[in-house]
Each structure stands twice: as C-alpha cells, then as structure tokens.
Amino acid sequence: MEAKKKTLLEIHNLSVAFWMYNGILTQDQLQVISDLQLTVYPGEIVAVAGSSGSGKSLLASAILGLLPGNAVVRGHLYYRGKELDSVQQTRLRGKEIAWIPQSLTYLDPLMKVGKQADGHRKPYPTQKRRALFQRLNLPKETENLYPFQLSGGMARRVLVSTAMLTDAQLVIADEPTPGMSLEQALEALKLFREMADQGRAVILITHDIDLALAFADKIAVFYAGTTVEIASASEFRMGPAALRHPYSKALWQALPQNGFQPIEGFQPYAGALPKGCLFAPRCSQATKECKEQKPAIRSVRGGEVRCFYAT
Amino acid sequence: MRKGMSGRLSRTFFIYGLKIITLLLGVSIVSFLLVSASPVNPVQQYLLKIGPVSPQQQEEIEEYWGMDKPLMERYLTWLGELLQGNLGESALYRRPVKDVIGERFSGSLTLMVSAWICSGGMGISLGCIMGIYQDKWPDKLLKKLCYLLSCVPTFWLGLIFLLIFSVILGWFPIGFSSPIGILRQEVTLWQRLHHLVLPAFTLSLMSFSPIALHTRQKLIEVMNSEYVLFARARGEGKWMLLLRHGLRNILLPALTLQFASIAELFGGSVLTENIFSYPGLGSAVSAAGLNSDVPLLLGITLFSTLFVCIGNMIANLLYEVVNPQIGSYTGEVSR
To answer: Would you call B65 an interface residue with chain A, using a CB distance cutoff of 8 Å?
Structure first.
C-alpha cells in the first residue's frame, strides 16, 4: 500500500567495514554493517532497535557521509530517488538531513548553548529557538550556559532542538531520550511525531522499544550490523505471532512486561561474524542451511525479514 | 559566583607571589655564590677604571668594600641593600644598576613585544593552516619549515639576515636602534621601526615554530572531536568550522603557550641584541659578563627571573579567567 508512495531514503545492501591493523603491518577489514536494507517514506517514524554494537549509530554516520577515513562503504543510498553520493551528502547535511547525536560531547565545550543551537546559518532563528527551548522544558537561562553546565537530559533536549530548527526532511535521532524524564521524553517524541505528520521523516535509533512503539510507524530490528526484520509498530505490539524473525520474537519476549526472558548467547563480534545467517548460532530453529548460507531479505506478510523459514 | 571567582583569583595571585619571592631568593643566593666562587674580583675590576693604586690602597678599598668579611655576611649586606631598592652601581656604566636596567629594558621591551606579537600571530595562523590541511602539501611544507627553524640557531639566522637584507640588499640598517650621529630626541618613529624590523623578525622566528606546531596539534585534535563532527553534520564547511569551533578551542592553549614562551624570548634577545648591536638588556648582560661588572650582572639576573615569572603567572591567571570551565561554575541547574 505504501509502495506507490515516493521514498525519502532508500538503503540497499549497505555494508560498512573498517580497516584495522591486526599486527604491525597487516590490515584487516572489520565488518560492522553488512547488507543493510532500509526504506523510509515521508511522514513516518522508523524506529531502529537493537542491542549495543549492532551498528545502529554507524548508520547515521553512513547516511551523512561522516564515517572516518578508514571506513569502506559498499551498497547504495538514495535520497528522494537520487543516488546519495558524497557530493550530495555534503550539500544536504544540516539542510535536508539532520542528525541528533547522542551525547553532551557533541556540543562545543566553549560555546554557549543558545548560540550553538542557533547554528551557523543566518539569520539566526533565535526567537524560534527560545520557544522551542521552552516547549522542551529547558529553563530560560539555559541559553547562556556552557555545555559542561548541562545535565545529560538537558544536553539531549538541546541536541534535539538543533534538528527541530532546521527544515530537514529527514531527521536521524540517535538515542535522543535517555536522561530525560518520562514527560520530557514524551514531549520530545511528540515533536518528532509532529514533524512526521508534516510530511517529514524521522529515523529513531533507540534502545527503548516501549517508547519507540508508542510513536513509531515501523520498527527495523538490527542484529550484528544488519536488518533482520522490518515490521509495523502494530505488529510489534501484537507480539511473537505477528512477528517474523526469531530474533524479533526473542526481543519481544525479553521486554519486562512480556516475561523478561533473555535468550542464550551473545551477539557476534564484528571481527568474528558467522558464515551463514548472523543469528544462526543463537537460533533454536537453525538448520544446516542457516549455518552455511546468508538468507536474503524478503517480503513476508507486508513486512520484511531476513530468514529462510519466516512465514 | 562572581565573588568565588575573584576569591580564587586572589588566592592564585597570592600563591604565585609567594612562589616568585622564594624563587628570587633562591636565585639571588645561587648567583651570589657563583659570582663569589668565580675568579672575578670586583675591586680589581673597579680599579681598572680608576688607574694604578698602591697595594696598601687596594687593601684599604677591599676592607672598605667588606671583601674580608665572611661570605654569609657579605650576602646579607647585599640582600639588605637589595631590599631597600639599592642594586649597587654598575662598574661599566658608572651609574646605578637600577637606572641602567630601566633604560636598557625599555629598548629590550620594544624588541621583545614586537617579536612576541609577530611570533604569536605567525605561529597561530600558520598552525591553523597546517591543522586544516593536515597531511596535505601545505601542512607538509610548513611542518618542514618549522622543524628547520627550530634546529637552526638564532644567531646564525641573524647573521644570514644581516648579510642578505642589510649588506647585500641594503634594505635595513646593520645595527643599533637608531641612526648613528643623530641626537636621541631627533630620532623619528619611522627610523626606530626601521631599525627594529630585522632584530624583531629574527627573534620571533625563534619562538614561532613551537607555537605553530602546538597550534597544529591542538587544531587537529579539535577537528577530530565529536563536536566538530556534529558541526559538520549540520553543514559547516572547513573554514566555518575553523572560525566557529577551531579558533575558540585552540586560543586558550595557544595563549598560555605564548606567555610561557617569554622565557625563551628573553634568552633569544641576548643573542639577537648582540648580533644587531641593539642596545637592550640582552647586550647589557653580555657586556656585564665580559667586563666582570658584578652588580649589573646580578641585577639583570634577578630582573630577568622576575620578568619570566610574571610571564608565566599571566599565562596561568589567563587560563583561569578566560576558560569558562574553570572560571565560573553556577552549580547544578538541571531540572
């Protein structure tokens, strides 16, 4: 049903690896994102969920073209149907695509917060920013503080405001809510929802699945640097029966209100990825095929899944 | 909050003052001991200028000067006079040491201040260029220049400059701070500047390369920081990043370094003033040394200690005043 709509961002088979020295002279590629797929339509909030080290934060850098020099990127990115190469990335950064980083360290330690949120483009949106600070429950004097005087939650709200002040059509928010109180987090997410309702799109990278479920339209589940499933938020709310991938089901079961059951094992380390399906070592239904071949992503019941046996 | 800051500042000031006084005392003891242990005999040196006297007269003068008293007593007498502001009389210039230092220092100060500004300006701007073009050709070229300058001795560089710009090209005078044969009152500002350019430039080249290299290093650090990454993500270009975040974050360390370089500058001025026959404290100290002018030598030693200490103190105080992270803390404001 959404296929007819124009996509805002398409990610096809994105792989990111880093050159690393593993001795004095030999270099190895460390695969951190492999064959990642994601499509974002205008007007939606896509939550990217997964445990730490699943490559969520790198995704933002890859979209913005801000990966460090030793990164090797393969695959294709399209923004509004147009290939998103480094020239386009430089042009769109901060204008069409905004990024909300996750911590205080992303703010210049020697610049006052208000000036910093206003950004470098003139005219400075000072009035708009003051209203936004107020809405985000940041005290009036916040604008004259330096970042080191902020709490973690305040810093995140300031970072959120930087994206809100742009006309960006795509906002990539990396863990925007930790450190905020529940009301503050809800207010921030409400702002994201409003943005999406204006036809913009938000990629919400998060640990907090509950909060994501309340506001997101779809959930992309990341595991070991790839998307294992893309499901609608309503399916996620329904539970394992509506979900497709064993990892998504396990993730659902691990939520406190659903029994708090963790699954055995650990997410594979980027340097030691299994040969076949990345989840196979922890999967109870894994077969020989799973251990030897990588499943491709495919459509199942309107969602997408990377599993041979999903129905 | 304001009060807390000024309280802390005056505390720092007080501690620094105490440190400087102790250091000056230490320096005075060591230099007095060194001079006493040296073969220099102030009486003989004094008599050289007066003319021949009989051995008996010499003994009387020595007794009058207290040369027969123990070392400790002589030191305390000297220190007592020193504390009353009496630095003695220069054997070389036949004037109070205080006046000689005052007059010579004003010449040196002009030279050092212009060299200091020049090296700071050049150092910081070239450091920025190197940092921005990290590992590209402008960086490589300038880095080599910096390394070259830090291993070339100043006096040699000064001689080369004299040879090229004064002897061959004739653009600048060969020495002194004003033209020869003109009364001091009649020297114009332009003439003074003309005489100042070459020595000041030579002196600034000496302290400029560490400042440039430190600025480069710091700027690279800043450019690789997360806040610059975020600024880039917001669409800031290379020069905008330098203006908005780079300068802001490198200025403080650069200024601190700049004030700390006063010590090197002072040392360098001795050489530079000698090469360019520039009448300042530096040429006075070597003249005092060569002519065994003990009072002047001791006076300049103490004065230069004080001068360098004050430079370092300014560097430290500046850090407290300018850096908001040290200067004022408003307490918990989170909500």
So the answer is: no
B326: tokens are 């040290």
Two structure tokens written together for A115: 């000036």
Could you tell me the two tokens for A1? 């049903």
| Helix or strand (DSSP H, E) at A28 | strand A27-40
**Please, are residues A104 and A147 in contact by the beta-carbon 8 Å criterion?**
yes
Measure CB to CB from residue A110 to each of B229, B324, B335 and give the nearest one: B324
Looking at every residue in chain A, the average pLDDT score rounds to 87
Domain boundaries, chain A: 9-20+28-305
Is residue A310 over pLDDT 90?
no
pLDDT value, residue B222 = 92
Residue pair A63/A97 in contact by the 8 Å Cβ criterion: yes
For residue range A2-57, list pLDDT tens digits in order. 445 788 999 998 999 888 887 777 788 888 888 888 999 999 999 998 877 777 88
Q: CB distance B334–A142 less than 8 Å?
A: no
Considering Cα of A291, then A293, then A297, then A302, what sign does the dihedral take? negative
C-beta separation of A73 from A14 below 8 A: yes
Distance of CA A74 to the CA centre of its chain: 19
Q: Give me the pLDDT at residue A170, please.
A: 94
Taking residues B268-288, what's their average pLDDT?
85
Rounded-to-integer distance, Cα B191 and Cα B179, Å? 7
Tell me the percentage of chain B whose pLDDT exceeds 90: 20
Q: For residue A4, what pLDDT is reported?
A: 55
Q: What is the pLDDT of residue B335?
A: 37
Q: How many CB atoms lie within 10 A of CB A260?
A: 9
Residue B21 in 3-state DSSP? helix
Q: Can you read off the two tokens belonging to residue A75?
A: 């695959």
pLDDT single digits (tens) B154-176:
788 888 888 888 888 888 887 76
Rounded Cα–Cα distance for residues A246 and B308 (Å) = 71
Tokens in use for A154? 């305040």
Q: Are A189 and A214 in contact (CB under 8 A)?
A: yes
Q: Do B333 and A162 touch (CB under 8 A)?
A: no
The CATH class of A9-20+28-305 is: alpha beta
| A178 at B interface, C-beta within 8 A | no
Confidence of residue A200 (pLDDT cuts 50, 70, 90): very high
Which value, in Å, is the radius of gyration of the alpha carbons in chain B? 25
Measure Cα distances from B295 to A13, B99, B104, B105, B284 in Å. 82, 12, 15, 16, 12
Give the model's pLDDT for residue B17: 87
Question: Dihedral, CA atoms, B177, B179, B185, B188, nearest 10 degrees?
Answer: -80
d(CA B100, CA B151): 34
Q: How many Å lie between the alpha carbon of B79 and the closest alpha carbon of chain A?
A: 47
Q: Residue B43: what residue type?
A: V
The verdict on A101 touching B (C-beta cutoff 8 Å) is yes
Instruction: Confirm if A304 and A37 have CB atoms less than 8 A apart.
Output: yes
**Can you list the domains of chain B with their CATH numbers?**
2-83 (no CATH), 103-327 (1.10.3720.10)
Omega within 30 of 0 (cis) for the link into A262: no
Residue among B245, B325, B334 minimizing CB distance to A151:
B334
